[in-house]
Design brief:
The protein is of the alpha+beta class and 335 residues long. The protein contains six helices and 15 strands. Strands 1, 3, 4, 7, 8 and 9 form a six-stranded mixed sheet that branches. It has a three-stranded antiparallel sheet with strand order 2-6-5. Strands 10-11 form a two-stranded antiparallel sheet. α3 packs across α4 and α3 crosses α5.
Length: 335
């Protein structure tokens, strides 16, 4: 069933042995009992818990009666097959379900008595965004683009200047260990409420903040000084995995990064969560510091530059990210 779920949910590339599925798409579970299962006399309920203090009121604790509807609008589950001591169940989370790591509790009611399993700290279900699902805000209807912006593990980040554009190969490695766990830990470290993690807009904003060490002790320390003796030179990185491994296992920011490293890292984190993303390079990149949308140079009456006013600049290049989702928070035509 694990391999079936992995294929159906486009998660077969993840190195983890845990169940990794996408919201909006049904997945299979098999329950094993210590005595013969009698369906007519037994009432089954599945509980899905996420976060430190799951609550029904904020959607972090979901009770799903088995043999509820699978219409895609809410959590549902139904029995698909029965053995002597096993039951196969098809489960579906809605396309706006909270993403993250879930524990599962099974409640059995027989002859008026309730029995509950304990949460297993070593067994979880990971629920991700689903760009293959029309109801998900990150839905993308082009399979070629899905393969490129969700499934592709390597790519090129462009650097240089407008006259000499160069390529940097980058290993996004979004399916390698522990990239997915590191991505979820970033959301935790930002104290981002679990109840809000259904929304890709807010998730992307948190990720954008947390790849920078200056915000909440995020991943990368930026350094443009040219002095890198106490860390790794930004140009030495060729992928995101080593950076995230260091951060996840040592629980400390990684030194050092510049714009293309931040961007490659952001692409990896968004893709592992199921949000289509790419790195984008702009050459002759204008940096406007006073918000007037121009690059200004100030001179005195002698045509001498006024240095303390001249904070705008044009960089050879700058790299940032694009992420794909609907934007109902913007006016019509902008998202």
């Amino acid at each position: 069933r694990l391999s079936y779920n992995r294929r159906a949910h486009h998660t077969e590339e993840y190195e983890s042995f845990q169940l990794i599925v996408r919201r909006g798409e049904p997945f299979q579970l098999c329950l094993a009992f210590d005595k013969p299962y009698v369906g007519e006399n037994t009432k089954l309920t599945l509980e899905f818990h996420t976060g430190e203090s799951p609550k029904i009121s904020d959607g972090t604790l979901i009770r799903v009666p088995v043999d509820s509807n699978l219409d895609g609008t809410a959590w549902g589950a139904k029995v698909t097959d029965k053995g002597l001591k096993t039951v196969d169940i098809l489960v579906q989370a809605p396309p706006n379900a909270i993403i993250g790591k879930y524990s599962v509790v099974v409640e059995t009611e027989l002859d008026g008595h309730k029995y509950r399993t304990e949460k297993d700290p070593y067994s979880h279900i990971y629920l991700l965004f689903n760009p293959w699902c029309k109801g998900d805000p990150v839905y993308m209807d082009d399979e070629e683009q899905l393969q490129e912006y969700v499934m592709n593990e390597s790519g090129i980040i462009y650097v240089g200047n407008k006259r000499q554009i160069m390529e940097r190969p980058w290993n996004f490695g979004q399916f390698e260990m522990p990239v997915l766990d590191a991505a979820l830990e970033l959301l935790d470290k930002a104290k981002f409420p679990h109840r809000a993690r259904w929304d890709p807009i807010r998730v992307v904003r948190v990720v954008s903040k947390m790849v920078n060490s200056e915000d909440e002790g995020g991943v990368l320390v930026g350094n443009w000084s040219g002095e890198y003796d106490d860390g790794t030179r930004p140009s030495a990185w060729n992928g995101s995995v080593e950076i995230l491994q260091h951060y996840y296992h040592r629980k400390e920011p990684v030194s050092y990064g510049q714009c293309w490293v931040f961007s490659g890292l952001t692409t990896s984190v968004l893709r592992t969560l199921g949000i289509p993303a790419r790195s984008v390079t702009n050459f002759a990149s204008a940096h406007d510091t006073d918000g007037n949308l121009t690059v200004d140079i100030h001179y005195d009456e002698e045509f001498t530059p006024i240095d303390y006013l001249n904070n705008d600049s044009t960089w050879n290049f700058h790299v940032w990210n694009e992420a794909w989702m609907t934007r109902p928070d913007l006016p019509p035509g902008y998202g």
